[in-house]
């Protein structure tokens, strides 16, 4: 019997999760997963009246709780004004497209720094408390995975809390948001224990 070793590239997972979160929160056309079919599916799956489409305007979708409103899109300007030490990350200002407020050409390490250090700062005043706290939990999860010193007790605590983090994440984002990469966040942690 041969055992297959699973080598997960955590930085690749971080990049994919960051791109997915950022594109959905900034409502980037063509990259967001929030569309009319998702809202129709939510009506069937969740049976929550607040998630149903308005019958008078069949193509009018409500905005999700994590979607940034137009006045909150100052995040792009904040990102554009970021300055880092030489060699810490690439020039993130060149990655932001101010017309559609999307991120293009970010390297894996740039996403690694953003999701661990900047995401909770960037969106703190712009999102509701429960959405922001879940993003912070995801950030702390990745920070613990990348920690240089691992404490066995903290790892076991994190093992129990990773399911809660994923559950909170799933309460905010629609089911279409999730694919294998989002679920690999918990798998990355499990390989440390």
Task: Explain this structure.
This protein has about 190 residues and is mainly α. The chain has one domain (about 10-75, about 105-190). The chain is built from seven helices and two strands; from the N terminus they run H-H-H-E-E-H-H-H-H. The chain has helices spanning about 10-25, 35-45, 75-80, 110-120, 130-145, 150-170, 180-190, and strands at about 95, 100-105. Helix 1 (about 10-25) packs across helix 7 (about 180-190), helix 5 (about 130-145) runs antiparallel to helix 6 and helix 6 runs antiparallel to helix 7.
Characteristics of this structure?
193 residues; single chain; 2 strands; two-stranded antiparallel ribbon; 7 helices; mainly alpha
Low-confidence stretches: none
Please report the number of helical segments. 7
- In the sheet with the most strands, the strands line up as 1-2
Secondary structure category = mainly alpha
The best one-word shape is globular
Average pLDDT reading: 76
List the helices and strands in order: HHHEEHHHH
Proportion of residues in extended strands = under 5%
Count of folded domains: 1
Please provide a brief summary of the model.
The protein is an all-alpha fold and 193 residues long. It has seven helices and two strands.
């Amino acid at each position: 019997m041969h055992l297959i070793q699973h080598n997960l590239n955590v930085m690749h997972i971080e990049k994919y999760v960051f791109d997915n979160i950022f594109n959905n929160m900034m409502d980037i056309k063509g990259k967001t997963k929030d569309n009319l079919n998702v809202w129709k599916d939510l009506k069937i799956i969740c049976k929550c009246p607040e998630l149903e489409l308005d019958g008078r305007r069949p193509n009018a979708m409500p905005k999700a709780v994590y979607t940034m409103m137009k006045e909150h899109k100052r995040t792009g300007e904040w990102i554009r004004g970021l300055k880092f030490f030489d060699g810490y990350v690439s020039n993130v200002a060149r990655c932001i497209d101010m017309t559609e407020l999307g991120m293009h050409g970010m390297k894996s390490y740039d996403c690694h720094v953003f999701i661990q250090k900047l995401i909770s700062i960037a969106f703190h005043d712009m999102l509701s408390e429960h959405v922001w706290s879940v993003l912070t939990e995801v950030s702390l999860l990745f920070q613990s995975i990348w920690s240089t010193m691992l404490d066995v007790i903290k790892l076991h605590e994190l093992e129990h809390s990773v399911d809660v983090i994923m559950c909170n994440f799933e309460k905010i984002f629609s089911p279409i948001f999730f694919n294998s990469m989002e679920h690999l966040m918990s798998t990355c942690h499990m390989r440390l224990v």
